[in-house]
Amino acid sequence: GVCFDERTGNYLDLNDIRNAFTATHQPSADNPPFEMIGFDACLMATYDTFNTLDGLARFMVGSEEVEPGLGWNYTGWVGALAENPAMGGAKLGQTICDTYYSACSQYDLEDTVTLSVVDFTQLPELRTAYEAFGLEALKLATQNPRNFFSNFGRGAVNAENYGGNTRQTGYTNMVDLVDLAKSNKGILPKTADRLINAVDSAVIYRINGAYRSKGGGLSSFYSYSGDEQT
Question: Distance between CA atoms of 222 and 220, rounded to whole angstroms?
Answer without folding.
Answer: 7
